[in-house]
Design a protein that fits this description.
With 419 residues, the chain is mostly helical. The chain has helices spanning 3-9, 18-60, 64-92, 94-112, 118-133, 135-146, 152-202, 208-219, 230-265, 269-297, 299-317, 323-339, 341-351, 357-372, 375-385, 388-409. Helix 7 (152-202) crosses helix 13 (341-351). The radius of gyration is 21 Å and the shape is globular.
């Protein structure tokens, strides 16, 4: 449905258009729910794995290196799956390929519960990670293509909230279930959200814009379209910088801040867990708020607002000493550090054509995820050689690069019609 049709549908005297508008909004809700559940599955699975590593190691006799490699290869699989499934989604369909990814994930997560040693579990986890990899980018493309232009940032931010919901669910459920059902049972529990996501997607079709462009998509090389000309290459570099900085900051904060609190202020594990929970809630609020503001003001101004906010709050956080200030400050810092993920879905969708939209979402975000994976390593290295304060200053400084990328590489296309 064109922008003109959408705008006319809300005016008196055009009742014939109203059913189209209702149908569009109904489909958009289903698409966003399906995408959000899929991304929640991503966060749920990765956090559960972190919680049960100790139990797996004790049962199967893994070394610390072997246990850590399960996480590493899950992420490697996710990056590979993101690239491949994003490309397949642009060729064969958003919903169809999302169902492929969820089936792959469900089967191999189920097999994890039957693992008898290191190598078979490593293979199962890697392939399950491949299945997870497509969730973010394809879900973002689906949500953006399903909704009206004036709702695009909000709808995309709801998909981003899925990760936080999945992380919180894992944090709440694992302490309750792990002592009862063990690590094998936890892998079995991980299959349940996958089944829910598959069922939800069964009731939605492909976006209209994808169907209209499918013949073009099958002829085009979606990877080449990310660097089709100088202007597009410039945009792609800008998006990679944005996603890299956001992931670098997110992992740097979430992995090292509990240790920082413990070392500097004597925080117990319980207090660190409380800080983590409150910070995640702050991040969730930041993602939601980003979508609300970006639809009203524009993408670039809100990215700049969050980037400046990240610099200020990360630096300010290092000067806090009161435990209550640290708790509240963690939520505010989390809002800016991770809230930017609420804007990628709309931004990338508006920068690239339908024939390359899911490829762009998954390739550019997963490059950022790969670069961001070095965040904890860099922060740890600086902290060990200098101090945690120096490491925090490092985290704050990277957002300056983000600001320059937004100012000089990213165009504003708020509410643009998708092509």
């Amino acid at each position: 449905m064109s922008n003109n049709t959408a705008s006319m549908a809300g005016k008196p005297g055009t009742p014939a258009a109203a059913p189209d508008l209702v149908e569009t909004d109904s489909y958009a809700r289903k698409a966003v729910i399906a995408s959000t559940v899929g991304y929640a599955l991503d966060g749920f699975d990765l956090l559960i794995l972190g919680f049960i590593l100790a139990a797996i190691s004790a049962d199967l006799g893994f070394s610390g290196t072997q246990a850590g490699s399960l996480v590493t290869w899950t992420l490697v699989g996710a990056v590979f799956g993101g690239v491949v499934f994003g490309w397949l989604s642009d060729k064969y369909g958003r919903v169809r390929v999302l169902n492929w990814t969820i089936l792959l994930f469900a089967i191999f997560t189920g097999l994890c519960s039957l693992a008898t040693g290191y190598w078979d579990l490593l293979i199962y986890r890697t392939i399950a990670g491949i299945g997870l990899g497509g969730e973010f980018g394809i879900g973002m493309a689906l949500a953006a293509e399903a909704c009206r232009p004036e709702q695009r940032a909000r709808m995309s931010s709801y998909v981003g909230l899925g990760w936080q919901a999945g992380v919180l669910a894992a944090a709440l459920l694992t302490p309750l279930l792990l002592p009862v059902i063990g690590w094998r049972g936890m892998f079995a529990v991980g299959v349940l959200p996958a089944v829910a996501a598959f069922v939800i997607r069964h009731f939605i079709g492909e976006p209209k814009i994808f169907i209209e462009n499918q013949k073009i998509a099958k002829k085009e090389n979606s990877f080449k379209m990310l660097v089709a000309d100088a202007a597009t290459t410039k945009m792609s570099i800008g998006v990679v910088i944005l996603t890299s900085v956001q992931n670098f900051g997110y992992y740097g904060v979430m992995i090292w801040m509990p240790s920082y609190l413990s070392k500097q202020f004597g925080y117990s594990l319980t207090k660190s867990a409380m800080w983590t929970s409150v910070t995640i809630l702050g991040m969730a609020f930041g993602i939601w708020l980003f979508g609300q503001l970006a639809d009203r003001v524009g993408r670039r101004p809100i990215f700049l607002f969050y980037q400046v906010g990240a610099i200020v709050t990360v630096l300010a956080y290092s000067a806090l000493e009161s435990q209550y200030a640290l708790l509240i400050g963690g939520a505010i810092m989390g809002m800016f550090v991770n809230g930017m993920i609420g804007g990628y879905g709309a931004l990338i969708s508006e920068l690239y054509p339908t024939a390359a939209r899911a490829t762009a979402q998954n390739v550019l975000f997963n490059i950022g995820r790969a670069v961001g994976g070095f965040g904890p390593l860099a922060v740890g290295a600086v902290a060990s050689k200098y101090s945690f304060s120096a490491a925090i200053a490092l985290l704050a400084s990277i957002y300056v690069l983000d600001i320059f990328a937004t100012l000089f590489l990213i165009p504003e296309r708020k509410g643009a019609a998708l092509d």
